[in-house]
Amino acid sequence: MNLFLLTQPDAFYLPKLIDRFVEEKPGTTQIVGASVLEGEIALENVPDYLRLMGVRGTVLNGLDFARHKALDIIDRSVGLNGLYSVRGALQAHDIPEHTPENVNDPSFLRELDRRDVDLVISIACPQIVREDLLAHLTEGVINIHGALLPKYRGKLPSFWVLANGEKKTGVTVHYMNEELDDGPIIVQREVSIEPDDTLHSLVLRSKVKHGAPTLAEAVRQIMAGDVDLRDNDEEEATYFSFPTAGAIQRFQERGRKIR
Predict the structure, then answer these.
(1) How far is 62 from 59, CA to CA, in rounded Å?
(2) How far is CA 232 from CA 144, 152, 181, 204, 245, in A?
(3) Taking 90 as the threshold, does the pLDDT of residue 129 lie above it?
């Protein structure tokens, strides 16, 4: 079965998730391409992250990102196959990139046909996937989300579970439709929240450590035609966007940190 990834640039989490998924996916599958689409790393989002992390946290995070970017340039130029960027992770596994302006464009669907793609996997895809793409492939489009759907749909679920004092979170792999984090659930895995968890440690443990094998298990079930779908019940759903000032205060009052 041929797979194609839809993702976005990242230095800290997605390269590790992709790397682990490549190692754990069924050996009879092949990732024949990936799109790295413009996402959350943009200058216009700096004010949001200043509110979330404060000046000191934003500067430190920016410096760490710059360090990763410099290491990535060095790493990719000499072929060390490091994990400092999404594109570095793709290069490390010889996954070719094909990034369109819009994943719903008919020319992109033709490119998927040219590569004989059976299943598209969204790993933080920043674009809305429309019906033409959803219905185009033999096995459809699936997404990995860093929470136990139908709860905590939307942005930064790991932040929100910490701000709300939850004792557990998890990852969900589900079929996509045109609605946000909707579609039938294929596999879920619970992850306990530890007293000393930061946002950084929780994302690493949930979406990376547990997310990669959960995604691999979903692909196995789809290959075997043995998917036991569960309802992603709209009536039980909760939705979250970028953290408000009140949510950031709750997060801090619970003793939580970004890193």
Answers:
(1) 5
(2) 13, 12, 9, 24, 29
(3) yes
Burial environment of residue 114 by CB neighbours within 10 A (0 to 12, 13 to 18, 19 or more): exposed
Strand pairing report for 141-145 and 168-175: antiparallel
Nearest to 26 by CA among 149, 133, 129, 121: 121
What CATH fold (topology level) applies to the domain 2-253?
Answer: Rossmann fold (3.40.50)
pLDDT score at 51? 76
Residue 104 and residue 122 in contact, taking contact as beta carbons nearer than 8 Å: no
Q: Residue 116: count other Cβ atoms within 10 Å of its Cβ.
A: 12
Domain boundary assignment for the chain? 2-253
What DSSP character marks residue 225?
Answer: T
| CA gap 139, 158 in Å, rounded | 29
As to burial, measured by CB atoms within 10 angstroms (0-12 exposed, 13-18 middle, 19+ buried), residue 245 is: exposed
For residue range 70-91, what is the model confidence (pLDDT) as tens digits? 766 776 676 666 677 999 999 9
pLDDT, residue 74, reads: 72
* pLDDT value, residue 11: 87
Alpha-carbon dihedral sign for residues 216, 75, 127, 203: positive
CA distances from 118 to 30, 121, 170, 223 (A): 10, 10, 27, 10
Tell me how many degrees the CA angle 189-191-194 measures, rounded to the nearest 5. Answer: 180
